[in-house]
Structure prediction request, 63 residues.
Amino acid sequence: MGKLSINEAWCKGCAICSEFCPKNVLEMKNGKANAINEGACIFCKICEHMCPDFAIIASKEDK
Prediction:
């Protein structure tokens, strides 16, 4: 399990994160990235690495 954090103040709504997400966890809502199905997230960190504004942090908890 982990945590997907989106800093809405930094998100400019480019939608790169939602386009690259392999599990369709993210969508754009009111011009900002929004996690719609965080339970499906595999914490591949593609969204985090692709975000040009550093607005997303995908943290996988160690067991």
The two ends are 9 Å apart (CA to CA). The first strand starts at residue 2 and ends at 6. The mean pLDDT is 94. Helices lie at 16-20, 46-50.
